[in-house]
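Honest question from a wet-lab person: if I give you the sequences of every part of a complex, can you actually get the arrangement of the whole thing, not just the pieces? Trying it with mine:
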Amino acid sequence: MGNGRVQGKVAIVTGGARGIGAEICRVLAEEGATVVPVDMAAGDGVRAMNVTDEKQVADVFDAVAAEYGRIDILVNNAGIIGPIKPAHEVEEKEFDALFSVDVKGVWLCTKHAVRHMLSTGGGSIVNLSSINGLVGGSRIPLYHSAKGAVRLMTKADAATYAKQGIRVNSIHPGVIETELAKSVSAGGSPEAAAHAQRQMEATPMGHRGAPADIAYGVLYLASDEAAFVTGAELAVDGGFSAV
Ligand SMILES: NC(=O)c1ccc[n+]([C@@H]2O[C@H](COP(=O)([O-])OP(=O)(O)OC[C@H]3O[C@@H](n4cnc5c(N)ncnc54)[C@H](O)[C@@H]3O)[C@@H](O)[C@H]2O)c1
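Yes, you can. This is the full assembly:
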């Protein structure tokens, strides 16, 4: 049972079929929002939509606004990890695929949510960046670049739409137990094991987070409790970014 912290609000959550996105949907719904999960992958109550396809984004967002009268919350959660290799080994098509989902997808969904938020007097957009958008690293350099772009897109959009009542904030998860995180340390190679060990050594709390740890941060930023918060970056990372 929730406490109605987002009671009556209409929320779209991209990448809502599994992992962090699914948990965000659960928590927002528990706190009273009407939640529309969208994803490339099928799932219970999930609408099919690829965040990289502008027509699909526009059609789904228009349909949600027509059905529920408004879009109050957008959580730009869909994301992929991309190539796990140094910059000089990455293919152009791998770069394009990663930036298409992790950067262009955030922009397209923001673009079409803002259209509706402007017409109803405001809203809250929460973008999933990462601790990898705060600092660099050698294993997934393009992911760092993409998540860094999400961090600054957030601040630019926050500045742009503040007067129109649209708040835009980013959340920066540390290592969270999902399929995506497993893929970075997968394979059983000594290199992957060393990477996983380094991640835990760099995390003062010494363990991975759960999707709920991120979902409750999103809930706060999405809710009116954060009415004076825009352009902020919330690290939820077991202390990773504190040291
Ligand atoms: N898990 C972590 O440790 C971690 C850490 C930092 C940031 N993040 C970020 O959190 C977000 C969620 O990560 P997760 O771990 O839950 O990942 P996940 O892989 O478990 O889930 C991602 C979801 O996004 C969907 N998706 C991917 N591409 C899409 C597209 N083009 N259009 C629509 N949907 C698409 C997938 O189908 C999937 O359901 C991502 O943006 C990720 O970069 C995750």
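Two things worth pointing out. The chain has one domain: 10-236. The chain has a mean pLDDT of 96.
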